[in-house]
Amino acid sequence: MAMGDMIRTVLGIIGNIISLCLFLSPAATFYNIWKWKSTRKYSGIPYIATLLNCMLWVFYGIPIVHPNSILVVTINGTGVFLEVIYVTMFVIYCSKDSRPRLLKMLAVAAVFFAAVVVLTLTLAHTHDKRSLIVGLLCVVFGTCMYAAPLAAIRNVVRTKSVKYMPFSLSLASFANGAIWMAYACIHFDIFITIPNGLGAFLGALQLILYGIYYRTTVWGDDEEVDKVEGPA
Fold first, then answer.
1. For residue 226, is pLDDT > 70?
2. What is the chain's percent helix, strand, coil content, to nearest 5?
């Protein structure tokens, strides 16, 4: 194995570990949902979006689309498994009024993914064409997933408080983006580089804001805010 391939494999394994931690980060939220038997004011949309994002990356990484990307498949396959659990719990414990809308969104996501798979495999007959089609979709959805922290960043600047922007999650997001960007740069893959480069940038921005506003943050439990959680 060439040195570059070895480094790429090591980075991919590290990326798998960090990404797994990010995928597991909502576990405490879903433990509370299970305990409450209610989703309360949490939104299920981020979990459906993350599920679709993971399914697209799994499809991108399989050999008939983009060879030599098994580590992309392993972590996103794990993500699909975990997100199915999260979404299933959400459907079970959400209110009767919101359940039909949630199921419609799931159906749309499933139909969209099936259409991508069928059209890609029937209309594109080379690895390059298939990688281009699926890769562009992955970039769009991956960028949207990484853009989610923008609301938290805006809130930190507005309140001059990092109380509701956990340092560990910001650090993990930065490390995850940086590792996968480095992984993609060894055998250059623009479709992995773009969303993860953005993720590394936003993660670094969160860490900088944490350093700026840590001392002005009031840490008492003076108020409870509604949090909308999503991934990776």
1. no
2. 75, 0, 25
